[in-house]
């Protein structure tokens, strides 16, 4: 399988609003398969089409089905989502701060506040309607990916400008408390 190139903010596609997917055809299925492969090779938990230079409202997300708020696995099996034309139709008033990374901004981490729970509608890769109620870490990943479809990067949503670190800074700063390798969420 061909690994797709993940673009960085120098490429304007990453900060553009993406267009709705009009047709779920063979070309889109091939793109979806390549995106899943690319996400897994990059050890990411999510990848949006604009991150591979395609300005389409579509993302792939893979998480453990019972990850806790810190992203720790509670179960072994993984849960793969392909979400096309997603819309957040409800979001909890409650927000939670958490550390995020991004496959398009390699080597950096930042703290972002996200809705603790959301409801997302869209369609899957077969065109079947999806209606997902998500919380915690999974809800965070979906919000991060859906932001990508609007050209929004996590770096524009930091809880404070100083809450942004290189992986090395984060590791030395929070060394005693947590293992950054386990903490880092690359989306
Ligand atoms: Zn990202």
Could you walk me through the main structural features you see in this protein, from its secondary elements to its overall organization?
The chain has 187 residues and is an alpha+beta fold. It has a single domain, classed as Peptide deformylase (Peptide Deformylase). It contains four helices and eight strands; from the N terminus they run αβββββββαβαα. The protein has helices at 26-41, 136-149, 167-173, 180-183; strands at residues 46-48, 58-63, 79-91, 95-100, 108-115, 117-123, 129-135, 164-166. A five-stranded antiparallel sheet has the order 1-2-3-6-7. The model has no long low-confidence stretch (mean pLDDT 91). Residues 102-104, 144, 148, 187 line the site of zinc ion.
Name given to the CATH architecture? Alpha-Beta Complex
CATH class: Alpha Beta
CATH topology: Peptide Deformylase
Strand order of the largest sheet: 1-2-3-6-7
How many DSSP E strands? 8
Please outline the major beta sheet: 5 strands, antiparallel
* Beta-strand content: 25-35%
Uncertain regions: pLDDT < 50 for 5+ in a row? none
Which of globular, elongated, flat, extended, rod-shaped describes the shape? globular
Any ligands, ions or cofactors bound here, and which?
zinc ion
The helix/strand series, from N terminus to C terminus, equals HEEEEEEEHEHH
Rg over CA atoms, rounded to whole Å, is 16 Å
Instruction: Compute the number of structural domains.
Output: 1
Task: Specify the oligomeric state.
Answer: single chain
Secondary-structure blueprint of this entry?
Blueprint: H1 26-41, E1 46-48, E2 58-63, E3 79-91, E4 95-100, E5 108-115, E6 117-123, E7 129-135, H2 136-149, E8 164-166, H3 167-173, H4 180-183
Antiparallel strand pairs: 1-2, 2-3, 3-6, 4-5, 5-8, 6-7
